[in-house]
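OP here, attaching both records as promised.
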Amino acid sequence: MKNTIQASLIVTFRCNAKCQMCDIWKYPTKALEELDPKYYEKLPDGLRINITGGEPMLRTDIEDIFKVLYPKAKLIELSTNGFFTDKIVSIATKYPNTLIRVSVEGLPAINDKIRGIENGFDHAFRTILELKKTKCKNIGFSVVISDKNADDLINLYKLSSYLGVELANAFMHNSWYFHKADNVVENTDKAAKIEAEFIRLLLQSRRSGIRNKLKDYGRAYFNRGILKNFSKTTCMSRIQCGGGKDFFFVDPFGNISPCNGSMEQWIMGNLKESSFEDIMNSQVAKEAIKKVESCDKNCCFVVTDRHDMVRRPWKPLYWVVKNKVKLALNIPTDFS
């Protein structure tokens, strides 16, 4: 299995949502200071690219960004809250091989409360329904799992399965990117119980097709770390973070950073001022990567697990088989 470097492009800090676990919306960028699409031409070909924000559909030149990146990327992903349905469908129609994930935090009541956006779930759901009419097939919801929305997690998974779309998930963090230092899991016992049920459903996936089942098994493997977080208040130690090597971030000003999980932004260089190659080979970049290597935050980010699963596929395979056998034989398991 080949490792593909991921570039997460934060194209704006502007956002029309006011999420409880993310304060980006309190620190919006101005449209005129956001990186011109031409600078993305400096990025190498063959990356897995995630276009994110803030809310990337607030960029009036979002299609210009796709025009630059779509031919270069091995895979291009759009992370959006789904509010701007027509613009998203336009992207999907013109660039049908795009992976699109629409962020929700649960069903309507919980979603709109946590995301602070009126009728947010309605817009997200309508966007998914409209995307299903296009040739863009890699579509789905994504959810940031916490104790605040755990009650809706199982039903959100069942809804996604019924619709035949994906349900990607993440875990809430504190960092420079989210402008948060006070995210905390309060009701750990309840959240852990629901998370364990979520893992069980993923391992017993009823989705059609082996590819879809394998995706669920992979997500179950990732969620074991979230379960550990809920159970022990610290994320399961897995591997050395690959920030700056396996993945990197580009902020709206053109600054390249190794990750979005640190409490301060470790800037390696700026795309406006230097070539990508010069930035990544610079002494500043090497110092930033040293900070990553000595970081003890132990974040629960799927991008870290994805690269580990590619490098050492026998680890998730063994874990999946072991726990599926236990479930089939009704043997108790803590999914460790």
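Record two, same layout:
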Amino acid sequence: MRQRKRPLKFLALATVVGLVALLAGYGAWFPSAQEPAYVFVDAWGEPGTGPGQFRDPTGIAVTDNEVFVSDARNARIQVFDHDGRFLRQFGAPGEGLGQLGRPMNLTISNDELYVADYWNDRIQVFSLEGKPLRTIGRSGQGPGELNAPGGVAVATNGDLYVVDFYNQRIQHLDPEGRFIEQWGTTGEVGIWAGEFNYPTDVALATDGTLYVADGYNDRVQVISAQGKFLHKWGGPFAMNIFGPFKGWFATTTSIAFGPQGSVFVSDFYNHRVQKFAPDGTFLSAFGEEGTGPGQFNYAIAAAVAPDGSVFVVDFGNHRIQKWRPHDSE
């Protein structure tokens, strides 16, 4: 009889331990919101080729008073004020200087606009007025070469961190485009720390920490200013497990910082934007699938203005949406 009781005791202990682990994991894997939701303000845009119209908008960047939008299939950048009034546009289809082949995520640094020029396998740099200044990168798999760049971040010294989508890596280049280092194995998909599955965007924190939208791994990865992997988040173990729950993703497509260092991640197939603390703690989310005000048909990119307003590219609805924090005027 004693020999029979031991397995039962062991089973009971294992059950208790499992329940404790499940409860502990529940809070980590299914977090609750720590902040109030954002509030929809306005939207602008419709399908078309005219000023203020879009064909698959994909990227966005903001200044104190202007909004820059990648109008991908129209091969141009459109510029608006914060209320959605059209100001100007630049770019045209092609491969020459100032021409674009599906512009993607945008970054502004030192009064210059950096455009991930996806089909042309390069980064293009423009003045904020639209004058083409220079290009960085060329097609290929070698160091400093690109295969469909999706996003770029720029350090204070002018170094570039480029998402090399089909090459499954992040490249660190100097301001002239010379190769310094990379993360990820060229051409190889991986789910472990420091590996990528079609990464889509990058952003640099003020301390030099690099945040990567690891697109089809449905997660965010964080790399130190010294190039060391720090942590990752998105679903259980942040290992390519997608879902609709808070803090989970269904393809991350853009990453941006708020004025206080919070991290905004575009959650494409979940039709929303999620907000996190720098350590990955879930704070809030906004948006749902649909075509009405405050609804998204694939939220592909977001940018945060100095006043905390969030501008979101509503890809499938061919428009831009503006949101504000719940407690702002």
